[in-house]
Amino acid sequence: MPTFTAPDGTRLAYHESGDGPSLVCLPGGPMQSAAYLGDLGGLTSHRRLIGLDPRGTGESATPEDVTSYRCDRQVDDIEALREHLGLDRVDLLAHSGGANLAVLYAARHPDRVARLLLITPSVFAVGLEITAEDRLATARLRRDEPWFTPAYEALEAVTVGRATADSWQAVAPFWHSRWDEAARALDEAGERAKNPEAAAGYAAEGAFTPTVTRRSLADFLSPVLLLAGQWDVAAPPRVMREFAELFPKGELTVQPDAGHYPWRDAAGFVARAQAFLGGPA
Question: Does a structural domain hold residue 86?
């Protein structure tokens, strides 16, 4: 697996696959290996995917200074990757929790981002509020699923702060459009791939200054696409619309019948992503 060296000397690894112009991909988790992104539903037919394993995850080394797990401190890792790849500007894709890092990178290095594609993004970096009703209303779209009642009751517990480990396990079907063996395997692999210490450090105090970030994004003139899933309780479409409006050239696409992993869940992901990134789908 190819590697490069971060400014603090930490060796970082990335997954490389596909043909075409480079697309740097930041995984969620937060702090999960990029392996779960796979070929992003077949996007490798159009793009060379560069999936970063964040420090302390996957094949990347554990840093000597664990405070460097903080999201804002990882912006330098993305800049080092860009320089390593020899790119003047990057097309940048980020999923879920990785979107916080992508947004901070765009705010700090706006001239280095050609296009920004945020897939079912987390909102911590920009300080938007996702209410309990946002999540529950989205969940109720799935009321005809055989697993709905126990999953919804668990989600209610999560939204009022009464979650247990069992609650988090019970809400898992809501992340996917199909709660099948493939979805279960993805969730299980994701849990094994996470670095709990790194995930805790990612959002440590001082990591996010939403007012400052939003002010910077108001001057970010590159095209931005937020791709939401109709059924995603983690990133409900109402809030994703607010997120897109933070960018002068932001737009929102809501994929029908998709959850938190729209490249797995619904047809049309590759066509929409490639139309935004440029070139034939």
Answer: yes
CB 248 within 8 Å of CB 272? no
Tell me the CATH number at 29.
3.40.50.1820
Three-state SS at 207? coil
Alpha helices by DSSP H, listed for 95-180, are: 98-108, 132-139, 148-159, 165-170
Q: What would the two tokens of residue 20 be?
A: 């075409």
Domain that holds residue 91: 3-127+195-277
Task: Encode pLDDT of 136-195 as tens digits.
Answer: 999 999 999 999 999 999 999 999 988 888 898 899 999 999 999 999 998 888 877 778
**Does 81 map to a domain?**
yes
| Amino acid code (one letter) for 122 | S
DSSP 30: T
Does 205 fall in a domain? yes
CA separation for the pair 75, 171 (Å, rounded): 32
The model's pTM = 0.96
Residue (of 189, 268, 169) closest to 227 by Cα position: 268
Beta strands across the sheet bearing 224-229: 3-5, 11-17, 48-53, 22-26, 90-95, 113-119, 224-229, 250-255
What's the CA gap between 99 and 74, in Å, rounded?
Answer: 12
* Other Cβ atoms closer than 10 A to 254: 18
How many domains is the chain built from? 1
Write down the residue that tokens 């034939």 correspond to: 280
For 216-245, the pLDDT digits (tens) are: 999 999 999 999 999 999 999 999 999 999
Within a domain: 85 = yes
Strands 113-119 and 90-95, bridge-based pairing: parallel
Both structure tokens of 137: 């209303």
